[in-house]
Amino acid sequence: MIFRYKTEISVFAIIILLCNLHLFTNSFPENTALFPDKLFSGEWWRIFTHYFAHLSWYHLLIDSAAFLILFFSINQKKRYLYLITCAAGSVIFPLLFSKIIYSNGLCGLSGIAHGLMIIAALEMVENMQTKIIGWIALSAVIMKTIIELTVSPGALLFLHFGNVGIPVAECHAGGIVGGGTIYLILKIRSHKKYKSAHLYKTKNINYSKTFSS
């Protein structure tokens, strides 16, 4: 898989490296993290760079690994559309519903990764061989986000071995909503196209039988 997607992986690696140069000096991603006030005052690049900026090497490792594995595991033809919708949801939700990002900022790929995890799980659910694993993964990521939203954003921080900052639950929820919504929309459209094509084919067969008789 690595050799097949080496160009895309190389591009992502370069972007991630450029957005995390601050880690070499053990500093905060002041110029790349998303601060709403700075974004709305004209620093538009933050809407893109904040996804790739991280607080620590550990944070970078777990986020990037999850993102790359999931991104290259899902449907190849739709993965960039999935990426865009997961990214959109993971930034729109915190901008609308989170207070903490207005003081602490927002950075990391975890919101997108949560959305991609939902998509990967839904794809596994459709496969008889991976259906059970898919349901387990789907339930786990949804339950994790519910706990973060209802109990505390940091309720599961004890599971980490390094600094990941304070999780923004709204970011994770937005990624899930974005990923799940686009997956279901495309699924419904695909079903309607299949149904229409099947109906057209059936009509043609019936017409041919009538004509031949």
How is the topology of this model organized?
Blueprint: H1 6-18, H2 36-40, H3 46-49, H4 57-71, H5 79-97, H6 101-104, H7 110-125, H8 131-150, H9 169-212
Helix pairs in contact: 4-7, 5-7, 5-9, 7-8, 7-9, 8-9
Can you walk through the features of this model?
By secondary structure, the protein is an all-alpha fold. It has a single domain (6-212), classed as Rhomboid-like fold, CATH 1.20.1540. 66% of the residues lie in helices and 0% in strands. The chain has nine helices and no strands. Helix 5 (79-97) crosses helix 7, helix 5 crosses helix 9 and helix 7 packs parallel to helix 9. It is globular. The protein starts with 5 loop residues before the first helix and ends with a helix. The model has no long low-confidence stretch (mean pLDDT 90).
